[in-house]
Amino acid sequence: MSSLPGRRQGKRAERFRALHRPGTPFVLGNAWDVASALVLEEAGFEAVGTSSAGLAASLGRVDAEAVALDELVQVVERITRVLQVPLSVDVESGFGPRPEDVAVCVQRVLGAGAVGVNLEDVRPGSAELLPLEEAAERVAAARGAAEAAGIAAVINARTDVFWRKVGPEEGRVSEALKRLRAYVQAGADAVFVPGAQRGSDIAQLAAQAGAPLNLLASRDLPPLAELARLGVARLSLGSAPMRAALTTLRRIAEELRGPGTYRLLTEDVLSYAELQSLVGRG
């Protein structure tokens, strides 16, 4: 059952949906546990998403549905119990081979308090893209689960055409658009194309997909101001925040094992009292 009263969750779903404005991109901060979600909220993010890779790593697992659905739902419940902003959940490929499995997955994460899901078109357990018709059926199942739950959840349909470098480079925009349009027809509210980085590709995807475009932050992606000009609606951070945090931890260890000093460990860091105040809200 949801940790949020129905009306409160419904309002969060409306807030989350309203953030998706092409040409006015918002940044979805991606968390991996309660504390990271609260830090992102305190920093001013208007919405938070889970990172499947980050969450899996926090549990000692690899990415790609190595975390059980029960475990994912437990984390979502813990986060939504204390988070005040909308939460979207990366459900990867939907935790099962059939559209019915996707429906159950979406029903459960919405029941745990989420107001959005990110659903990709990779065959569960492999790097192979699903056949288009099958992928669209899974999007439709997600949409149906949201409607059955009575929540105007944002179904963000992801295609990995660019991420997996499917086919010749010159054909990826058209292949991605073919998939995205089918997902929108099946009920997707937004679309996600990780790996798209070239301005001309982004502009075409944003203009022709038929739904607000979400991209993944990366070193070679244009800055936010340029993404706005290109028509992007949302930018996800993915597992980068967790990887950056772990990199900082590794540097702290290297400093201690090297010069034996404590600069990175102690300078401009969250105090013990601040941490207790942050997580004590729950």
Q: Which series of helices and strands comes N to C?
A: HEHEHHEHEHEHEHEHEHHH
Spans of at least 5 consecutive residues whose pLDDT stays below 50 are none
CATH class descriptor: Alpha Beta
SS-based class: alpha/beta
Describe the 3D structure.
The protein is an alpha/beta fold and 282 residues long. It has a single domain (6-239), classed as Phosphoenolpyruvate-binding domains (TIM Barrel, Alpha-Beta Barrel), CATH 3.20.20.60. Helix content is 48%, strand content 12%. It is built from twelve helices and eight strands. The protein is globular, with a radius of gyration of 19 Å. It starts with 5 loop residues before the first helix and ends with a helix. The relative contact order is 0.14. The mean pLDDT is 95.
